[in-house]
């Protein structure tokens, strides 16, 4: 059980909630803050004070005063009108993350929402009730308005939720659980949708997948090195200490650990003086991607515990301030940076694939790893596929955050496009996984040809695990299922 406080949620805990089915509970002290904030909203309504989002319209309509009798209708209209997401839904795991993150943000007690709404969110997490949320339609400022509106719809008994692979009406799930839908009170609709939880949820899933792939890229590269008689001198600790990047030093140390005991790695001058950059510079390139991951992790863990709606309520309601914490620029930058860092892991991997299949570069392995060169093509087109994915990543890596389009009658005149960046990062990560799967297939084939008995113990163990799901290339076959199986293994 993971206790949500609004301020201490970590990526490790998110991993447990998303992938290990950990349940959540609400911190009693956080609920006290929530109740005080709610009391403040109700007092504002009773006193008929004009406060944005409580008794005014939204965006360019912020100067329109709303009567007390219409405050509930105002919130309902807000959620319905903003539920205009487009395209395929986010994966269910992202939807789950979205609920957790919105719940955690509202537990900070600055939003004026009732505790019963947050308790319903916790019930949804613990009972796997995940909203169906379209991926497109967010500008990433004023919050992820469209995606989060689809999330909020489910509370109202509208919209849809996942049930296995199917989408079913939200009201069906509440009937199944014997619960009534939520009726939103003043400020609650705005509190639910003003925030960055769509881009951050996708960002969390991106990070967790990217971190795993970054580790995988090292043992896969180690297998490639064995197949190519790679020179381990390039990983000597003194080289990396001389430069000083901790991430670079860590990669070099892990590479030496993977390759310890290999009969196939060499030292400088034994077969050649030095390797090409795609081998020799693994610590420098992979290490730089680890630096990117460190930056992304830091920003995500701040945003996961941030109050990102508007307005925010302080000092028991005496101070209600309209600001812009919903603006997604920090996460937009982080996702664009993640795209670049992950794209490079695929880029250098594809160059190792080329070395494995090119008869001029692969240290005596058969051309294209073909069992019968000429009669059989072997891995020739596997390299084409990897090159295609790497090229696609170059277009996806274009930063989304440099774009902005004014909205809401130019009241909201600068936006982050952070959700687009997060979605494109997920596409890049998928492409990286497939490129690494191709490298793994080629590397294991190279090691098979060399003889697996000479492999390092740790890479041999990985080889055996791979060999349980795919065979080395011993005859031309349809390779798409192999790539899919290895990609799933990596995921």
From TrEMBL:
EC number: 4.3.1.3
Main location: cytoplasm
CDD domains the UniProt entry points to: PAL-HAL
Segments traversing the membrane: none
EC primary class: lyase
Keywords for this protein: Cytoplasm, Histidine metabolism, Lyase
Keyword Lipid metabolism carried by entry: no
Protein location: Cytoplasm
5-imidazolinone (Ala-Gly) crosslink, residue number(s): 141-143
Modified sites of kind 2,3-didehydroalanine (Ser): 142
Presence of keyword Lyase: yes
Protein known as: Histidine ammonia-lyase
The species this protein was found in: Sporosarcina siberiensis
Gene: hutH
């Amino acid at each position: 059980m993971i206790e949500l406080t609004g301020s201490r949620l970590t990526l490790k805990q998110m991993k447990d909630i998303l992938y290990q089915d950990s349940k959540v509970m609400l911190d009693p002290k956080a609920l006290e803050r929530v109740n005080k904030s709610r009391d403040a909203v109700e007092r504002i309504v009773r006193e008929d004070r004009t406060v944005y989002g409580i008794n005014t319209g939204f965006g360019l309509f912020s100067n329109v005063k709303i009567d007390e009798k219409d405050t509930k209708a105002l919130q309902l209209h807000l959620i319905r009108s903003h539920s205009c997401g487009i395209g395929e839904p986010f994966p269910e795991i992202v939807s789950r993350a979205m609920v957790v993150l919105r719940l955690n943000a509202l537990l900070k007690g600055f939003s004026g929402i009732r505790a019963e709404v947050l308790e319903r969110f916790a019930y949804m997490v613990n009972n796997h009730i995940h909203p169906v949320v379209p991926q497109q339609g967010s500008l990433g400022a004023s919050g992820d308005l469209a995606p989060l509106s689809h999330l909020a719809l489910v509370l109202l008994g509208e919209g849809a939720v996942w049930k296995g692979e199917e989408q079913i009406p939200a009201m069906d799930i509440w009937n199944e659980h014997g619960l009534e839908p939520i009726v939103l009170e003043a400020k609650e609709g705005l509190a639910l949708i003003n925030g960055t939880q769509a881009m951050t949820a996708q960002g969390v899933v991106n990070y967790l997948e990217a971190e795993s792939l970054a580790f995988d890229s090292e043992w896969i590269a180690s297998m490639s090195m064995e197949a190519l008689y790679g020179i381990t001198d390039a990983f000597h600790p003194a080289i990396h200490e001389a430069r000083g990047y901790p991430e670079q030093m860590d990669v070099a140390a892990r590479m030496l650990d993977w390759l310890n005991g290999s009969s196939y790695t060499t030292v400088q001058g034994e077969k050649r003086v030095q390797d090409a950059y795609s081998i020799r510079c693994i610590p420098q390139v992979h290490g730089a991607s680890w630096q990117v991951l460190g930056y992304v992790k830091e920003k995500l863990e701040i945003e996961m515990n941030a109050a990102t709606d508007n307005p925010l309520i302080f000092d028991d309601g005496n101070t209600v301030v309209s600001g812009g914490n919903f603006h997604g620029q920090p996460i937009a930058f982080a996702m664009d940076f993640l795209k670049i860092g992950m794209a490079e892991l695929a880029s250098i991997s594809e160059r190792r694939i080329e070395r494995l299949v090119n008869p001029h570069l692969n240290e005596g392995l058969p051309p294209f790893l073909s069992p019968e060169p000429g009669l059989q093509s072997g891995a020739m087109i596997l390299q084409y596929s990897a090159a295609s994915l790497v090229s696609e990543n170059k277009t996806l890596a274009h930063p989304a955050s440099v774009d902005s389009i004014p909205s809401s009658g130019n009241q909201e005149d600068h936006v982050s496009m952070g959700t687009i960046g997060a979605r494109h990062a997920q596409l890049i990560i998928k492409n990286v996984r497939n490129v690494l799967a191709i490298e793994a297939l080629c590397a294991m084939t190279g090691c098979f040809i060399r003889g697996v008995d000479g492999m390092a113990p740790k890479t041999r163990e990985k080889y055996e695990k791979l060999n349980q799901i795919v065979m080395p290339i011993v005859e031309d076959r349809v390779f798409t299922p192999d790539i899919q199986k290895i990609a799933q293994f990596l995921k």
